[in-house]
Amino acid sequence: MSAYAALTGAGFRAQTRDKATLFFTFAFPLLFLVIFGLIFRGQKIPETGRPYISYTAPGVLSWGVANAAVFSVAFTLMRWRGSDLLRLIRMTPTKLTTVLGSRYVLALIVVAAQSVLFIAAGMLPVFGLKIDGRWPLVIPVLVLGVTAFLSIGAFVGNLANTSESVSAIANCMMVPMAFLSGSFLPLEEMPSWVGTLSWALPLRYLNNGVSDSLTGSGSLGDIAVAAGGLAAFTLVFCLLTLKTFRWSNSS
């Protein structure tokens, strides 16, 4: 068995055995979908005439995917560096790219499971999410979203030395971003400055891409803009991580 396959299998078993990880990856974001779906059940956005669920389901899905990506890789890098595992990897034939690649595959598996769960829940009669015919376009958007937020998580994990600092930095980024990017409430119902500010946040692009693909709320050009924004954030945070990467806490 290759090192890549072994690492991927070990990571998968570790994630599925950790009940807390499973809860915060799947059940916790789904709880937001249920809460907002029931609160705004049957209601429409006055400005657009579209049902709330066409905003909340893609928005909560995007936030759940982004949150899982950031926290998973941030905690992993922090632990590996703290235990000097990164320095050991550096001295072995196994490349760091192989190790991180295994985490990337795990993240894609998680986003696939999250997407099926969230979309299926949103389509229940109690919520009534309607899927557009071009829904397959959500797949490359989600892949780009996972890649972007994994790069953000890698940057966070490179900065933090403790689990407390990982949680503090990641939450300070992800919680405000969820509200300012329209994951929970449509930006049309917020002050205009929030909509302007949201263009500087990667979650806005993921929200837009997922919503436009799933519900047909935007054009192919809008989806391309969302994909381009996610690719740009990926490049920026990858460069930042490579520039500041530390193999150990003492380096």
UniProtKB/TrEMBL annotation:
InterPro entries in the record: ABC2_TM (IPR013525), ABC2_TM_bact-type (IPR047817), ABC_2_transport (IPR000412), Nod_factor_ABC_transporter (IPR051784)
Organism, scientific name: Streptacidiphilus alkalitolerans
Subcellular location as annotated: Cell membrane; Membrane
Keyword terms of this UniProt record: Antibiotic resistance, Cell membrane, Membrane, Transmembrane, Transmembrane helix, Transport
Entry keyword annotation includes Signal: no
Membrane-spanning segments: 20-40, 60-80, 101-123, 135-156, 168-187, 223-242
Membrane topology, as annotated: Multi-pass membrane protein
This protein's name: Transport permease protein
Keyword Nuclease recorded: no
